[in-house]
Amino acid sequence: MKKDLMILGIESTCDETSAALLKGGREIVSNVIYSQIEEHKKYHGVVPELASRAHAAKIATVINEALGDHPLDYVAFASGPGLPGGLMVGRVAAETLANFKKTPIIGVNHLEGHIFACEFEGTEAKARLSFPLVALVVSGGHTELWYVKGYGNYKILGRTRDDAAGEAFDKVAKLLGLPYPGGPQVSKQALSGRREAIAFPRPLLPGTWEFSFSGIKTAVSYYLRDHKDFSIPDVCASFEEAMVETLVTKTLLAAKKYKVKHVAVGGGVAANALLRERMTEKAKEMGVETHFVDRKLSSDNAAMIALAAYKKLEHAEKTGKPVKKNINIDPNMKVRNWE
Length: 339
Ligand code: KG4
Ligand code: ZN
Prior knowledge:
Elements: E1 6-11, E2 16-23, E3 27-35, H1 37-40, H2 48-67, E4 74-80, H3 84-101, E5 105-109, H4 110-116, E6 120-121, E7 124-125, E8 133-138, E9 143-150, E10 153-159, H5 165-175, H6 182-190, H7 214-226, H8 232-257, E11 262-266, H9 273-285, E12 289-292, H10 302-319
Parallel strand pairs: 1-4, 4-5, 8-11, 11-12
Antiparallel strand pairs: 1-2, 2-3, 6-7, 8-9, 9-10
Helix pairs in contact: 2-3, 4-10, 5-6, 5-7, 5-8, 6-8, 8-9
Bound molecules: 5'-O-[(R)-(carboxyoxy)(hydroxy)phosphoryl]adenosine and zinc ion.
């Protein structure tokens, strides 16, 4: 592979339109992110039709800004999982650019991007992950636990049966009248609340690696209905505590069961300070090292997509196997082994 391979990544799976240029699988030359939060705010969640339109309206500008006058060797885009309209916009933009610039194109899994993003330190992918590891992907649309033997070698242990972790934060924020996206708002309120004030459930679902967060959200809504004088900080602190305890307990149980010494956490919810603190502390007690995505790159961005593409190309080169280009979009894409 060319030493300074220039990959332009495109991300449009949910409510961020982003393009980024990655040099040599290491250096983020640009990472332009247009967030659609303003468009979706008044609905307290992402409206798919509005998202597709906003992607279509912004993608050309975002790509242009990210690419500038730089040379280009490869175009990568997130081909799933995500909202069909957004994925389509990403694919059309990627194909148009690749045809125009006469470069190859590759589709990558958005969730792989969230995990590989743990390698970025500032604007460089330096902190290479160590394997085997257990990965926790926690975002607004997904909550999944994987056993990762190496690059491109995954086993999905469990996923959420209902709400994603970020979705639960967003829904609780909505119940409390806090603005979208709810995660950062709930966290902020929680700082002045008492974590032990209300005993919300911890859905550990023993015997499975699955998650289920709709019960915690329902428990919050019943609490609000039955306690007219509730304290927003106490509700937020107790809810956050229940969420974090559940995520940390299950992830570290998996780390123990699979005898791994490393845990990687990526996705929007990985920005949560309590989750970072607790996971790190509890893992350390077991001799396990945690790798969290840098807060600045925890939400959707195209630098992580370009890095995931680089990993795939590098892996194909190392193993001598043909790279799976995977450019068909798949809204329900599951992470799959490259091998
Ligand atoms: O990864 P992301 O940007 O988009 C998806 O792929 O879904 O994740 C967005 C989610 C939202 O649900 C947001 O509320 C949540 O991440 N989030 C947080 C925090 N910051 C963002 N949840 C909890 N605590 C936070 N500090
Ligand atoms: Zn995401």
